Amino acid sequence: MRGETGISEETSSSPDSPLAGEGVGARVTAVFTAAEKAAEHIMSLAREEADDIRRRTHAEIDTYRQECRNTAEEEAQRIIQAAHDRAGQIERDARAAGEELERAARERRNRLLEETHLIEERVEWAREGLREVVGRLEQVASPDATEPVGAGLAPPDKEPAEA
Hints:
By secondary structure, this protein is mostly helical. It has a domain at 9-97. It has helices spanning 9-13, 24-141. The longest helix has 118 residues, at 24-141. The chain is rod-shaped. Residues 1-13 have low confidence and may be disordered.
């Protein structure tokens, strides 16, 4: 039969029992001591688990940071490469535009030289025509028609001789 403490009389009366001969207070103290040891063990396990979680979390954070850093570096490299590509395209476009401007300037220069040459030819042609006109006018105006046509005219870069 059991007593009020829930411990059988056989256990309490047994000479081999650790609680034998002791009172209820000693038994309660033993239970509290065992509970404290169990609680300390549970707390120790909880601390170890918390430390393990903390280490894993730090490792995951470090891994995540490294992944973010790698991603940012890759993105920066892509941006830099795109900028280099764009700069290269701008440079090629600028060179092409410069070459086109130089080609157009050469064509214009050549055209102007040709036009200048044509104008010089026209001026020379006009001078020759004017010499002929002056010669005819001199023949008509002078009572002596013995002078040949154009004899009174000087070459284009010389002044006529005074008579």
